[in-house]
Structures are given as structure tokens and as C-alpha cells.
């Protein structure tokens, strides 16, 4: 269904923790859960504090890209603790050919982006009728 395409994600996260945010040029990765419910794959991404108008979901060929932004607070004050990442969040997933990328739906509620990706009709199990080669017996066997 999907494959991780960012082998350096853990390294970037470690670098941000040790050196502080903004030290790597790569976008912050958003946590994700994925599961299958019947004929639909469900993906949920945690994006707390992200305004819905900054969320962008694109599909190109079989690559699903999710982008969002949480701006850094600004003002005339001194930061005492900074543990919540800010800036651009991005995630790319390579989806299999067995999914219907024309009918992906997205919903954003309470800081969670939920995508539903249906299984393509051509990938669903179907019955194949098997006929017999005998001309005397015209019955068909269904498997």
C-alpha cells in the first residue's frame, strides 16, 4: 500500500533536537497512522495548531504529498522553552497501483488530517467463471 520514502527522517529529527529547529533545510515530518477498513485505506496525520487553509494535499501519479505550515510565533518577547516544531511540515507516500487515487477524500478536524483512499475496482477480488471443455456438458463451474 505505501512505502516510506524518507530514510533520513530520524537523522533530521535528532539533528533538530540537538541543534535546534531551523538547522536542517528539510521540512518537519508529521506523525502518521495508517490502516485498512474494508475496501478503504485510512491515513491520519497529526497537525496540532495548523490552520486548515495551510494544509495542501496533492496526488501526482502514485505519489501522495501532504504539506502544512505552523508559523513561528513572533512578537516582542523572549522564548523560554521551544519544544513544538514550527515551519513547513511535509510528507510523501508512494501508493500502490491497487488504489483509486481519483477518489481520495480529505477531512481536517481537531488538528488531525484524515485521508481515505479507496481500493480500485480492478484490484478488488472477483469471481471468474470456469467453463468445461466438454461439448456434451455445457454446465459452468463457478469458483
Automatic annotation (TrEMBL):
<dbReference type="InterPro" id="IPR031107">
    <property type="entry name" value="Small_HSP"/>
</dbReference>
<dbReference type="InterPro" id="IPR008978">
    <property type="entry name" value="HSP20-like_chaperone"/>
</dbReference>
<protein>
    <submittedName>
        <fullName>Hsp20 family protein</fullName>
    </submittedName>
</protein>
<dbReference type="Pfam" id="PF00011">
    <property type="entry name" value="HSP20"/>
</dbReference>
<comment type="similarity">
    <text>Belongs to the small heat shock protein (HSP20) family.</text>
</comment>
<dbReference type="InterPro" id="IPR002068">
    <property type="entry name" value="A-crystallin/Hsp20_dom"/>
</dbReference>
<feature type="domain" description="SHSP">
    <location>
        <begin position="23"/>
        <end position="133"/>
    </location>
</feature>
